[in-house]
Amino acid sequence: MLHTLMKSPFETNMNLLISMLKKSDDFLGLQDGVLIGLQDNIFLKEIIKSSVKLYLIKEDVYARGIHKNISRKFSLISYVHFVSLTLKHKKQMNW
Questions:
Q1: Would you list the domain boundaries of the chain?
Q2: b/e map of 23-57 (b: 16 or more CB within 10 Å)?
Q3: How many CB atoms lie within 10 A of CB 92?
Q4: What is the pLDDT of residue 56?
Q5: What is the average pLDDT score of the chain?
Q6: pLDDT band with cut points at 50, 70 and 90 for residue 94
Q7: Strand order of the sheet with strand 26-29?
Q8: What percent of the chain is modeled with pLDDT above 90?
Q9: Chain Cα centroid distance, residue 82
């Protein structure tokens, strides 16, 4: 399953989201959801422990000026790669 976070993690039930992640899932932050990738945020340890592949949309990270503060556990990808993730996962959950 592909989990996409579009809102700030501070406006989302992150405990529920993280509890639903399985190792075979991919996680993508876009729009304000890219804030989940900030170093030292309160949700970072738990989402890293989930062992899912973590992605952020590069354009959204740069648009918010936070590229220097993103955890190295996240891969920055383009919208083209986002499309390939949607093709890979027939099931998706939007947060």
A1: 2-94
A2: eebbbbbbebbbbbbbeebebbeebeebebbbbbb
A3: 13
A4: 98
A5: 96
A6: very high
A7: 75-77, 53-57, 26-29, 2-5, 92-94
A8: 99
A9: 11
Q: How confident is the model at residue 7 (pLDDT cuts 50, 70, 90)?
A: very high
% residues pLDDT > 70 (the chain): 100
Q: Phi and psi dihedrals of 74, rounded to 5?
A: -100, 140
Structure tokens given for 40: 């030292």
Q: Which CATH architecture has domain 2-94?
A: 3-Layer(aba) Sandwich (3.40)
What is the spatial distance between Cα 48 and Cα 74, in angstroms, rounded to a whole number? 9
